[in-house]
Amino acid sequence: HRRASLCVPMLGDVDVDAFIRKHGLSDDAKLDLKSLVEGAVVGVGKRRVTVRVPATTANMGPGFDCCGMALDIWNEVTVERAVSFSFEIEGEGADKLPRDKSNLVVRGLEAAYKFIGKENEVPVLRYWTKNRIPFAKGMGSSSAAIVSGILAGLAIAGFNLQVKGEEELLQIATAIEGHPDNVAPCIYGGFQLGIHNGKRWYTDRVTLPHGLMCVVFCPDHITETSAARDLLKSQVDLEDSVFNSGRVGLLVAAFATNNLHWLRTATEDALHQPQRSSLHTHLMPLIQAALDAGAHGACLSGAGPAVIAFTGGRAGDVIAQNVSERKELEVAEAMLAAADKIKCPGQVLITKPIEHGGYIVSETVSYDPDTRRHRIHYVQD
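Predicted structure:
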């Protein structure tokens, strides 16, 4: 017991179980050891946390670098105090993402510690990620990694941030990402419109219309955001600026008033989609195919290569609803047919917007049983 107590602050569940098996502890000793470990971090943060973060689609046509919406596709990250650093990845991007401290999850966590003035106090941690968000497709996988790391870091450190009037979590995330169009909906959910007011990043929610569905064509190939951004001009024509300004206003109005038929015009763009068409040769054919099949609007998702189309008619669970009441299957088939015609292999994901952003699913921490706090539980799943 004495030897175990010396390393308790660094032990996670896997370490404890391995210690028990190695030393053949009795049942009483097992209980004593687990109780000791769980009680060792009271008051200094959490021992183990699991965080879920959503996919996001940015720009939504004309809202370059300022508009974004959360989608009901989730990555899950578990972080635990450990005796040595490790990083495990399951799912999307597992064969491409780094498993060292350059991973954006780790960078997000370390940024959280730096923000609270504890950059030299980051504990040794073990990371597990279950990635369902398509990697490098323009669906916010980088922002999801950053936000999940920040949330996990704050929970491990036992620190809360100011939201009202400060949006501190948003400031940390945009400092890494550079703009709020993905990180804002990843944090807060829904459709977010973000700007910089000269002092800090600011974002606000746009109403989501009921019944909206999202049909996302994901090519098999990936695109680096930096490569897509390099195609853009540093200066734009006044005519193009006016074109986009009007359509951003129409986009917000279409969502706020549930006039989805406005999206056909509201998702048009002059600032980035025409310039990126040379890289994404499938973009314009798929947008046209989606519109011809009955989509309300369609555009490039983020920097691409994914193309997203918006349809309506959802009522309750779509699996139980008659498909004739909705258009997403027709739109999906039309997009696939157009992609096959130009030899752009890929798949379609059908999902919906989600009102809430990233959250902590579970945490391992102990409280004094003599207080009321141990009988209060946050339930988020």
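Summary: Confidence is low (pLDDT under 50) at residues 1-10, 36-44.
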